[in-house]
Amino acid sequence: MSVRSDLHQHYVQVCQNLGQPENPFIAHVLQEADKNDEIIWTKGFTLKIAGNSHLVPVQRVTDDNLQVLVSVLHTAAFVTGLDLRYNVLTDAGAKTMATFLQENSSLRYLNLMFNNIGTSGAELIAKALHGNETLLHMRMTGNKIGEKGGMFFASMLQINSTLEKLDLGDCDIGVRCLTATATALNQNKSVKAINLNRPLLFSQEEETTVHLALMLKNNSSLVELHLCKHEMKDFGVERLCEALYENSSLRYLDLACNKITRDGVKFLGRLLKWNQTLQILDLNANRIENDGAIYLSEALALYNRTLQALSVVSNNISGKGLVALSDAMRTNTELSCIYIWGNKFDEATCMAFSELIQMGRLKLNCTDVEPYEVDGHIYLAELSHGLQKHYYWTPSYWAVTKKDANASLAIAAVSEY
């Protein structure tokens, strides 16, 4: 065993020095990492210490465990990623991590999603990123940092010029944080992907959407934008579309779980006739109905040759609209991924998508339906595929290689992290 990456032995020694008991899950992960010494030394390595792993017995990482772990990682420059999702880290653990970020010069990916970090922990981590020049991807997803905690990250975006991807989804941020983030992104040239899903909004006036739309007019670096569960209606979609006529960088737009109707999709249809940048459009769980599907299909069949993935899951679309989308795929060879489950399938719909799959135009790993036959009739069964498949959960036992199943910059990648 090379001494260059004897992480486990170092971990045992630090535990003894600090008088801390060993965490068997951390010990197991470090032992596995040591087995790949030559690979991680040359290419870098992500330590996956996810508390939701089902492969081995998991003892979730505590604040004290993290203190020991970062002591080990101080001398492990080949560790370029750290996955600590679904553990029990609190603001005390955030303080340890903030100190580590200030001193570390090799970490490029940090995943802290769904721990117990609050406002004060968010402040410490965000301020640590003021001077950090190596971290590219930060996930705070599901930590209840609130409005104040989100404001610290918005302020960080005015200073940090390295971070490329930031996820603040499910963090209970609000109007002030969204507005401040949009303002920061007017000037920030490094952020390429941001997730602002499920804020806590107490207004129906969509002022946050207006601010984000104004940002898109000025920002030329943002590639991916997630605005899921923003209570967005047709007015907000119209503002975003107006902005996107002046934007030539955005490739992934997530508008899932909003209140968009056929009238809002009419603006998206017009945009797609002109836009040559968008590659992924997620309209999952809105209410675009047949008319909205037809607006999209007209744009895709006759004009747009850029969009690669479209999700219209659970949009109250019936046969007429779904068949129109299938017809668009026959003429548009660029659209390769389409997700339609949760709508109203009739016999014509089942036949249309069955033919697309049988002729090889639509691959099963690029859609969420699979045809089957009973008594001479074709039906569609659900497949567990979709643009959000691996947002909350990523398998530990194999690498996610299917670009269509990843919620992040999978089709339009920025970097590995």
TrEMBL record:
Domain of life: Eukaryota
Keywords: Repeat
Protein name according to UniProt: LRC34 protein
